[in-house]
Structure formats: C-alpha cells, structure tokens
C-alpha cells in the first residue's frame, strides 16, 4: 500500500496522493508498461474465433490420415476385368471392391473407377465382374486415379497455424481436422465497469439536476473494440460504502473475475468523489494520478491488491473517453499482449497556440476530436468536456502538444476504436513493447 503524502497545493486534484500529473505520452507508456500479458489459456475450438493463437497448431497426424477415394465407384487392383470382392484386404490383382467418396482405400488398390465409368455383369460362372463402360473417359482408370493419398494436405508434425495468428473460423476447422480439441490462446482482459453518480439516469428525458447516462450505451462496445471482454456493469450512487463494495473483489457478486475495473466519475475532489480513497481503503496503490491533458486530466490508474487494475475515468463524458483512450487502451493492449496502439500522423488544418498549463504549471496536451479534409485534420465543433456531439462525428483525435501546433505542421492523431485507421493521411507509426515513443 502506498503512502499518501500531501503535495504542495492542497486544492489540487492530486493533493494527498503523492503523485503529480504526468505528461500525456508518459501516461500512455506507463499504462502500457505497468501490465504484462495475461497467462495463455487452452480454450475449446468453438470459443476461440477471433482470439490470438499463442502456441502453434501442428498436424497431429498426416492429413488426410488415410488414403481415401475421391469418387463413388470401385477400388481396383491391376488390370480389368475385375471380379467384385467383398472386403478382402489387401485387394488382390484382378479384383475390385465397391467404395464411396471418402472411403478407406484398401491396400493393393491401384485406382478408383467412377461409378459412371464402370459396368457390372455376371460372368459365365454367375460371379459379378466389373468392366470399364463405354461411357468412361479415354484412359480410365489411370494408375492412382481418384485416390487421395494420405499426407497430401500436411504431414504429421507440420505447422498448420503459427503462433500469433488471429483465428478465423476456417483456422478452427483446420485445427479440428488436425486432431485438436483445444487451442492455446492469449486471453483478452475481462473488464468490469462501475458507473457512479446518483444524478445519473438510464432512460428517458432527464430532469434538471439529473443527467442521462452516456457511458452505459457505449462502454461495452468500446471495451470490445479495445481488445477487452466487457464484464459486469454495476451502477452505484455517490456513497463511499457503495464505492468500496463495488471495487472490492471479494464479494459473491463482485468484479473479482475481471482483470480491469473501469469506474466513471468520482475522480474529482468534492465530498462525493471517492476513487482514490476507496482504492487506498482497499489496500490498492495509485500508479498514475492525473495526466497533463485536457480534457480528462483527473484520470487515475491504480492497482488493487488482488491484481486487478482500476481505471478511474472522470465523469465528464468526453473527458472520460479521452482518458480511456489515453490509459485504458494501452492497459488493455498490454494485458492482451498487443502492441501499444499506434498513433497516426496528419497535417494540422488549424493553428493551436501554447497551452496555458494546469495548476501544477505543466503544459497540457490537448486531445481534440477531428475530421480529415483534403489530407488536413480539422477540429470538430461541440468538444466541451461534457459533450458527446463532436466525438460522435469525429474520425480521430488530434494530439496537440503543450507547445501548440501551426496549420500545415504535422500533428499526431489518435485513432478512435471505431474508425478505420486509414483516416489520417500519413503512415501510422508502429510502436511495439518497450519501444520509446515521443509525441
Ligand atoms: N474544483 C474543481 N472542480 C473540478 C475540477 C477541478 O480541477 N477543480 N476538475 C473538473 C474536471 S476537468 C473534471 S473532468 C471533473 C471530474 O469529475 P469527476 O470524475 O469527479 O466526476 P463527477 O463529479 O462525478 O461528474 C462530473 C460530471 O460528469 C457527469 N457524469 C457523471 N457520470 C455520468 C454519466 N454516466 N453520464 C453522463 N454524465 C455523467 C456528472 O453529472 C457531472 O456533470 O471535475 C471537474 N470539476
Ligand atoms: O479535464 Mo475535465 O476532464 O475537462 O472535463
């Protein structure tokens, strides 16, 4: 449990935590580096679509594993006419046996004759004899014709699906054919959500003093788009006891099965803002307390004693989504063994002066929802911290550094989880684990 030492400005949102707000690129990096990939797990094939394979799938035996017929007809041995044999193994020269498509070709078979190309008649002794019919194609049956030899698709031990593959349904079918019941995949983090605020209503038109919930309708989808699995959604009011209960991982209906718990609201410093106190009371520790960004600066990241990460999003709707993009996305990527989400680079269509700085004097990175026009990024309107209208039509988020950016200059763009990464004009910069990134 960390020591909470008051910092110089007791009115600062960071007062009492011992941590100062950190720069935006540093916050992303910290949220990525604080977590390692979840341990890999064996899952049944039907549950593995879309998951990333951690251990290569190899052929457990030759594919196909026996020589089979490609046609309905007869397995033949040697030259005809062929006396029809019933199940002799191996097939003796001059004999044939009825075979269906996919049937096990008996040993001694030299070819399969299609049903359309053969004629069965009785010989003088009343025995059934097969001959090639007049309808047969010239040259039928050629040696090996219509026999699918074993091992033509793969040999035992051959790698069929390398580790790192995102499994599609056909991969799963291939794994089944190769003899597997389970595949080893990288688990995705399960994310529970605690929505706080007694003023929040979930349906209808809110009365003055109430607000309609903006997080319930979007967070589940966004969590999935960020590579997580949405878990329990819990709604609480503003009491400390409710916060403790919701964040506690030990209750029967708790978020214990989650790897991450996201909370909304309660990151400020009023008497109803309990994120930090609840984490401290539960024995957790803050990893990050405030980011020099706007909106979203009160964002908090903590680790709970049971190993869950707690992401405290501010209550203001746009601020929350920018905080989620800044610290939630890298955290989920790290837990899912994915690279740090890529930033794109575009050209700014606007001038942005230097930022005035926050209470601790740090210049803030501005996250501005934007659209692209003729290769330039322009801010959208309606991007106040409490608004959703601008974000709803945005194609990305401009990352304007504290010093500002002039029109015509390159600017980093954070893709939105639901917009195609190709929206910005220039090639994305790939940033892998342990690769330093600078805005
Ligand atoms: N004296 C100061 N006040 C505030 C500061 C500050 O530095 N000093 N920072 C402001 C900033 S910036 C933000 S962001 C917010 C952070 O607030 P909280 O995280 O404590 O969130 P709440 O106070 O609970 O709510 C803020 C706002 O968001 C609305 N809200 C909450 N949940 C929802 C929801 N599910 N759907 C829609 N809207 C929601 C809530 O009604 C409030 O209007 O603090 C500022 N204040
Ligand atoms: O930074 Mo707050 O997060 O503006 O609304």
TrEMBL record:
Cofactor: Mg(2+)
Swiss-Prot/TrEMBL keywords: Magnesium, Metal-binding, Molybdenum, Molybdenum cofactor biosynthesis, Transferase
Cellular-component GO terms for this entry: cytosol
EC number of the protein: 2.10.1.1
Taxonomic placement: Bacteria, Bacillati, Actinomycetota, Actinomycetes, Micrococcales
Catalytic reaction annotation: adenylyl-molybdopterin + molybdate = Mo-molybdopterin + AMP + H(+)
Record pathway: Cofactor biosynthesis; molybdopterin biosynthesis
Gene source species: Pseudarthrobacter chlorophenolicus (strain ATCC 700700 / DSM 12829 / CIP 107037 / JCM 12360 / KCTC 9906 / NCIMB 13794 / A6)
Broad class of enzyme this protein falls into: transferase
GO molecular function: metal ion binding; molybdopterin molybdotransferase activity
SUPFAM superfamilies hit by this protein: MoeA C-terminal domain-like, MoeA N-terminal region -like, Molybdenum cofactor biosynthesis proteins
Functional description taken from the UniProt entry: Catalyzes the insertion of molybdate into adenylated molybdopterin with the concomitant release of AMP.
CDD domains registered for this protein in UniProt: MoeA
MoaB/Mog domain mapped to chain residues: 192-334
Gene3D superfamilies listed in its UniProt record: MoaB/Mog-like domain (3.40.980.10), MoeA, C-terminal, domain IV (2.40.340.10), Molybdopterin biosynthesis moea protein, domain 2 (3.90.105.10), Molybdopterin biosynthesis moea protein, domain 3 (2.170.190.11)
Residue stretches spanning the membrane: none
Pfam families in the record: MoCF_biosynth (PF00994), MoeA_C (PF03454), MoeA_N (PF03453)
UniProt protein name: Molybdopterin molybdenumtransferase
Gene Ontology biological-process entries: Mo-molybdopterin cofactor biosynthetic process
Domain of life: Bacteria
Family, as annotated: Belongs to the MoeA family.
InterPro entries xrefs: MoaB/Mog-like_dom_sf, MoaB/Mog_dom, MoCF_biosynth_CS, MoeA-like, MoeA_C_domain_IV, MoeA_C_domain_IV_sf, MoeA_linker/N, MoeA_linker/N_sf
């Amino acid at each position: 449990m960390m020591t909470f030492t008051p910092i110089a400005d007791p009115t600062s949102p960071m007062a009492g935590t011992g941590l100062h707000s950190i720069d935006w690129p540093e916050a992303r990096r910290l949220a990525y580096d604080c977590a390692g990939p979840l341990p890999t797990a064996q899952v049944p094939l039907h549950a593995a679509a879309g998951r990333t394979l951690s251990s290569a799938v190899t052929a457990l035996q030759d594919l196909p594993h026996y020589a089979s017929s490609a046609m309905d007809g007869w397995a033949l041995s040697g030259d005809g006419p062929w006396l029809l044999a019933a199940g002799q193994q191996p097939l003796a020269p001059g004999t044939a046996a009825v075979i269906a498509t996919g049937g096990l070709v008996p040993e001694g078979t030299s070819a399969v004759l299609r049903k359309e190309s053969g004629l069965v008649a009785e010989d003088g002794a009343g025995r059934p004899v097969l001959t090639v019919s007049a309808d047969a194609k010239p040259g039928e049956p050629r040696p090996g014709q219509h026999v699918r030899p074993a091992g033509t698709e793969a040999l035992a031990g051959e790698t069929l699906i390398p580790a790192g593959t995102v499994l599609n349904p056909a991969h799963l079918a291939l794994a089944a054919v190769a003899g597997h019941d389970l595949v080893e995949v990288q688990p995705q983090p399960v994310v529970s959500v605690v929505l706080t605020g007694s003023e929040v209503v979930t349906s209808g038109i809110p009365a003055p003093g109430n607000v309609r919930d903006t997080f319930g309708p979007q967070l589940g989808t966004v969590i999935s788009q960020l590579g997580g699995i949405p878990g329990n959604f819990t709604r609480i009011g503003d009491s400390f006891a409710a916060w403790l209960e919701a964040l506690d991982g030990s209750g029967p209906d708790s978020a214990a099965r989650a790897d991450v718990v996201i909370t909304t609201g309660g990151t400020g410093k009023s008497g109803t803002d309990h994120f930090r106190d609840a984490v401290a009371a539960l024995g957790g520790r803050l990893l990050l307390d405030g980011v020099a960004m706007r909106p979203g600066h009160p964002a908090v990241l903590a680790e709970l004693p049971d190993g869950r990460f707690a992401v405290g999003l501010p209550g203001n709707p746009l601020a929350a989504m920018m905080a989620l993009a800044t610290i939630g996305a890298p955290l989920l990527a790290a837990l899912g063994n994915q690279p740090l989400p890529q930033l794109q680079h575009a050209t700014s269509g606007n001038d942005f002066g230097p930022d005035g700085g926050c209470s601790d004097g740090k210049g803030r990175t501005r996250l501005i929802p934007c659209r692209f026009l003729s290769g330039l990024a322009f801010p959208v309107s309606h991007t106040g911290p409490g608004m959703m209208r601008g974000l709803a039509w945005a194609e990305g988020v401009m990352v304007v550094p504290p010093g500002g950016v002039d029109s015509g200059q390159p600017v980093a763009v954070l893709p939105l989880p639901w917009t195609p990464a190709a929206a910005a004009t220039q090639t994305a910069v790939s940033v892998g684990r342990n690769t330093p990134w600078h805005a």
